[in-house]
Design brief:
single chain, 121 residues, mainly alpha, 5 helices, 0% strand
Length: 121
């Protein structure tokens, strides 16, 4: 269970690094516009907001990575639960305000990771 939880946590972190790249560096590029279904005009107008959002996704990824490498297992577990819950909360808000697809793409791996974390306790 712990291995599955760690692998799913790593996947969640990797996804958030990808979101960081998309939102901070590719938002106005063709790939970023395609992923987020934006016109060139809308992407340009919202690029600073997207970069800010990307930075927050980077913080989530950093916290999840920290939870995977921290030497104290009890504290690592607390970090993992905290940052996974933060991801799920962000996914719920994103699903509510932007697109239900966010709950699956962003929240799905985090919810699975949390499930395996709790099953392994």
């Amino acid at each position: 269970m712990q291995t599955a939880a760690s692998l799913l946590t790593a996947l969640t972190a990797l996804l958030h690094v990808g979101f960081l790249v998309l939102e901070m560096f590719l938002w106005t590029k063709p790939v970023g516009r395609k992923v987020f279904r934006n016109s060139p005009e809308k992407a340009e107008i919202t690029r600073v907001l997207a970069a800010n959002q990307g930075l927050y996704n980077g913080f989530l990824a950093a916290g999840l990575c920290w939870s995977l490498v921290h030497p104290d297992p009890a504290f690592a577990l607390q970090l993992k639960v905290f940052f996974l819950v933060c991801v799920v909360a962000a996914a719920i808000y994103g699903a509510w305000t932007v697109s239900p697809r966010i709950l699956l793409v962003q929240g799905g791996p985090a919810l699975l990771a949390l499930l395996f974390v709790f099953l392994g306790m």
